[in-house]
Amino acid sequence: MDILVIIFCKILSFFTNIFGGGTNLPGSVALKARPHILKKLAAGYRIIAVTGTNGKTTTSAMLASILRTTGRHVVSNESGANMKSGITSKLISAYPIFKKTDGDFAVLECDEAYLKYVTDDINPEIIAVTNIFRDQLDRYGEVSKTLKMIEEGCAKTDSVLVLNGDDPLLANLLPERKRYFYGFRVNPDVSKSEVQNAEGKFCTVCGSPYSYNFTTFNHLGDYFCPVCGFQKPALALGVSAQPEFSPDETKVSFDGLDITVPQPGAYNVYNALCAAAAAGAAGVCPDDIKTGIEAQECKFGRQETVEIDGRQLRLILVKNPAGCDEAINSVLADTGEVEIGFLLNDNYADGTDVSWIYDVGFEKLARLDYQNVAIGGTRCYDAAIRLSVAGLNSNKFIICEDFDSLLYAIKTNLRGRIYLFCTYTAMISLRKFLHKKGYIKKLWY
């Protein structure tokens, strides 16, 4: 029965890809017919699951690139369809009817809330956790709830855990388990002196406020509790020299292994660190880790660059204060002529509560040499108000109520490189629009 469902859903997947459909439908159909079909689909793979609030898609793409460098076949849901149905869809489309998958890798990005449902049926060799930040309060609630969901998912397995050691919320996660921590050994930005906009400020052992030797961003950094003595765990892999940041890449040293991360910003250094640590736990050598990270391309709205009539449009996915702040910091490294934009949606996948935009430091964008600000999305006027409050010149705002008007603005009113911050469904819809117009060649990955 399972194989009949798989064949039917493989055909369904083929046609949904042709007609630009979603990445969840085949998996939803399969799970409806056979609720535990994921167990069969995952059999034979060496599975590495990647979860956490920010950076899952980029980390998964980097990790898949590293593993492919070793010559192994790798299946990965790199489009970001990370709920159980999306993971099932990807494994269905990759399911080999006539050969075995023994020794192949499956890198599975997994939504924090769905990890515990995915691990009902699969037991990953490794689970990598990127970080925990406040995100979509209507879905996740406070960070303590997100941490509990991740813990429940990990507890159902005997997986090795690869954890962000700079995140104090993760330092006490399943301490009896085999764990590898990664993080910064040095301060990446000596200008930072305090924790901003942070949720994980209090010791998970005694509840006292943490002190910090340095912070990287938000509540991440080199922390310790002055009351009970709990402190940042020893790192298996760390940034050992101050990174060199630029608008397009970051040069960094991972314990003496010099790597050029092909994305800007400290948050992408963390993504590369997580991928490298997970690959190391899977037995990959340092040279392959370096080659794989440096070969990974920006795509699917994560610093993805789209050429539009000689202009560079860079799509930057944002969904919460911590990630958006770091995305803004990466843009500030560009000292040339730039344009900026913001597409704000409030659909379920974005989070229906958009009040988070007032916790983001949009004020920093006022430093840029910009001529216009393109604003769109279902909550475009809320975005315009927030950017006006942040000190951006409202006379330079271009309100784009649909993608045709946005494209017209890009072609006629915007110059140089255009940094467009997009919430999730805005990014997905814009990519579909640009795909139909011929500017994006590959819609799904």
CATH homolog superfamily of the largest domain:
Mur-like, catalytic domain
**Percent helix range:** 25-40%
Poorly predicted regions: none
Largest sheet: 7 strands, parallel
Please write the CATH class name of the largest domain.
Alpha Beta
In what order do the strands lie side by side in the largest sheet? 2-3-1-4-5-6-9
Form type:
globular
Number of domains: 2
Instruction: Please state the oligomeric state of the protein chains shown.
Output: single chain
CATH topology of the largest domain: UDP-N-acetylmuramoyl-L-alanine:D-glutamate ligase
Distance between the termini: 28 Å
Question: How big a fraction of the residues is strand?
Answer: 15-25%
By CATH, the architecture of the largest domain is named 3-Layer(aba) Sandwich
Total number of helices: 14
The assigned structural class equals alpha/beta
Q: Would you tell me the overall average pLDDT?
A: 91
Number of strands: 18
Fold and architecture overview:
- By secondary structure, the chain is α/β, with parallel strands linked by helices.
- The protein folds into 2 domains: 2-295, Mur-like, catalytic domain (UDP-N-acetylmuramoyl-L-alanine:D-glutamate ligase, 3-Layer(aba) Sandwich); 302-436, Protein-Tyrosine Phosphatase, Chain A (Alpha-Beta Complex).
- The protein is 33% helix and 20% strand.
- The chain has 14 helices and 18 strands.
- The chain has helices at residues 2-18, 25-33, 37-42, 56-69, 84-94, 115-118, 137-140, 143-155, 266-281, 286-295, 321-332, 380-389, 403-412, 424-436, and strands spanning 46-51, 74-76, 105-109, 126-129, 160-164, 179-184, 211-215, 221-224, 237-239, 244-245, 250-254, 257-261, 302-308, 311-317, 338-343, 373-376, 397-400, 417-422.
- The strands form 4 sheets. The protein has a 7-stranded parallel β-sheet with strand order 2-3-1-4-5-6-9, with helices on both faces.
- Helix 9 (266-281) packs across helix 10.
- The radius of gyration is 21 Å and the shape is globular.
- It starts with a helix and ends in a 9-residue tail after the last helix.
- The model has no long low-confidence stretch (mean pLDDT 91).
